[in-house]
Design brief:
The protein is α+β, with helices and mostly antiparallel strands. It has four domains: 91 residues, Sandwich (Immunoglobulin-like); 98 residues, Sandwich (Immunoglobulin-like), CATH 2.60.40; 155 residues, no CATH class; 167 residues, no CATH class. Helices cover 27% and strands 33% of the residues. The protein contains five helices and 29 strands. Strand 3 and strand 4 form a beta hairpin. Helix 2 packs antiparallel against helix 3, helix 3 runs antiparallel to helix 4 and helix 3 packs across helix 5.
């Protein structure tokens, strides 16, 4: 009688099902096999032994049949016409819990803030299965591999933290970073994490130095190019209308609004220590006081700080006990006007020049005039703002309730962990018992967080936003009607395409104060059909 051969099984997570395969070269056809599994040890009894019908030479072991952290021996036999074949030789395998990988370089919003990042991840595994090698892979938004980085071995002093330098990340583009680990006992595991880069695009600045060559009658021009990258510490703007990671507000797509209580801060810059560099800044609504800070790290290291005054800018640089100050040119009545600031550092000496924006008009910043413009389109100012404030207050209240619930559960988690540590110090728990207890507490918390808390969070917010959205419908209908009337005038010839496009853009600008989304008509290449298509898409979206 021919004996079947059970193929070697990989070590796997017992929470998952697993397909055992075997080879049988006997002359008699068979469709039934028996898989027997016992713990590795002398005289142990089977924990699993069942028949299974399969046209293929395999046996599917259901999930959760075995236990992680345990070694097993398995064998198989096939059912023949007159009974069963002999058992195959036993094979050995071990069940291990699937590892966890946390990409700590990527924040909770799935953002990074530079185009050159040291990607870092922390590896954990319930049975402390060590990693023998790891490899990072960068994927595009379609999961196509862009860069496969070298296979590396963990560092001896940091065996559970794996790093890789990832460069040339384009701003605003969706990527996936994958980390594949191979463990000591042959477990291969890869985890992908999506991310998007949000940073201010660096520019290359130059210093031109001409030198006269009298002998040859030539002028030699030396051009020194430098590129400096840093990480902007994002300002928090109270009552902002969106939850985007980039919380700055812009005017004319160039000027950034800097709140008085939150100056624009750049960290991880070498500028504070560099002897030669150039900086260019376009800003507006800058109130007196600190508005720009270059630093190696937030609240630490050597800083270069810029302060706004009524008519000029000062730069303050401190090194040890020495503090130096530099003043810019004076611009009378600068106040809150937008301006361009040029900073030139040569051999540590700082020069500042500011140029006010000549295109800026008073009515661009006149709130009363803006209200007059809005009044042309119905009563959509004071009452509307009250409605928006009430809606945002409701959403914020929901967030506060959910935050309170989160804080309570987080504190319970911390208390349980601290109690386990106290028990270990009092020798109530051993080292392995402490590890298992903390892992159990951790699993319970994150299971609650992912499957209960976050689900309830989005449900609650969606409910609050739906209730708020209903109040906007009257204004959405009004907006759509005005767009439709304008398109009809263009079609009938009563209004030119250019005048109509300008009118449509004005409507979108006005109603953007009220509605969460309006149509962007600000494209000179749009034809009448293109305008109509945008309008139809908008109607379909809110139908």
């Amino acid at each position: 009688m021919t004996q079947p051969i059970l193929n070697q099984a990989s070590n796997y997570d017992a929470k998952n099902s697993y397909t055992f395969t075997f080879t049988y070269l006997g002359a008699e056809h068979t469709t039934t096999n028996t898989l027997s599994i016992r713990e590795d040890g002398p005289g142990t009894k089977p924990v699993y032994e069942k028949d299974q019908v399969s046209l293929d030479k395999n046996h599917i072991l259901p999930a959760t049949t075995l236990n992680n952290g345990t070694a097993y021996l398995a064998k198989v036999r096939v059912k023949l016409k007159d009974g069963y074949s002999e058992w195959s030789p036993e094979i050995k395998f071990t069940c291990y819990t699937t590892p966890r990988i946390l990409f700590d370089t990527i924040d909770q919003h799935q953002f990074i803030y530079t185009n050159d990042v040291l990607m870092s991840a922390i590896y954990t595994q319930a049975q402390n299965e060590p990693v023998t090698s790891y490899q990072y892979t960068l994927y595009d938004q379609r999961h196509v591999a862009l860069v496969k980085y070298p296979i590396r071995k963990p560092e001896r002093n940091s065996p559970t933290r794996f790093s890789e330098r990832v460069s040339n990340i384009k701003k605003g583009k969706l990527y996936y970073i994958g980390l594949k680990v191979v463990t000591e006992h042959g477990i291969i595991y890869e985890q992908l994490q999506e991310f998007t880069a949000q940073y201010i695009t660096p520019s290359v600045s130059g210093i031109i130095q001409p030198t006269m060559n009298k002998d040859d009658g030539q002028i030699v021009v030396d051009l020194f190019l430098k590129q400096l990258l840093g990480t902007s510490a994002r300002a928090y703007i109270p009552k902002r209308k969106n939850d985007n990671a980039d919380n700055y507000t812009y005017w004319k797509d160039d000027y950034v609004f800097v709140p008085k209580e939150n100056p624009l801060i750049y960290t991880k810059l070498a500028m504070a220590k560099a002897s030669d560099w150039i900086g260019k800044f376009w800003v507006m609504n800058v109130q007196n006081g600190l508005f720009l800070d270059f630093s190696p790290a937030e609240d630490r290291g050597q800083h270069i700080k810029f302060y706004k005054h009524d008519d000029y800018i000062t730069c303050e640089k401190e090194f040890g006990q020495i503090k130096s100050r530099t003043r810019s040119n004076v611009i009378k009545d600068l106040k809150l006007r937008p301006f361009y600031m040029f900073v030139y550092v040569k051999e540590y000496r700082v020069e500042i020049k500011i140029v006010p924006d000549q295109t800026f008009k008073d009515d661009d910043w006149n709130e009363e005039l803006s209200k007059e413009e809005l009044s042309q389109y119905g009563e959509i100012t004071k009452e509307t703002q009250q409605m928006i404030d009430a809606a945002e207050a409701k959403i914020n209240a929901a967030r506060q309730r959910l935050q309170q619930i989160h804080d309570e559960h987080w504190q319970q988690y911390i208390t349980k962990v601290e109690q386990a540590i106290s028990d270990a110090r009092a020798r109530i728990l051993g080292q392995n018992e402490l590890r298992d207890r903390v892992m159990e507490i951790d699993d319970q918390y994150w299971d609650y967080f992912e499957n209960t808390e976050m689900v309830n969070y989005w449900k609650e917010l969606a409910k609050a936003e739906r209730e708020s959205e209903a109040k906007y419908e009257i204004y959405r209908t009004e907006y759509e009607q005005r767009i439709n009337d304008t398109l009809s005038e263009i079609k009938s010839g009563a209004m030119t395409l250019d005048d109509g496009r300008l009118k449509l853009t004005q409507y979108s600008l006005v109603y953007s104060f009220i509605l969460r989304e309006v149509i962007d008509f600000n494209d000179s290449k749009l034809t009448l059909d293109g305008l109509q298509e945008l309008y139809n898409d908008y109607l379909q979206k809110y139908k």
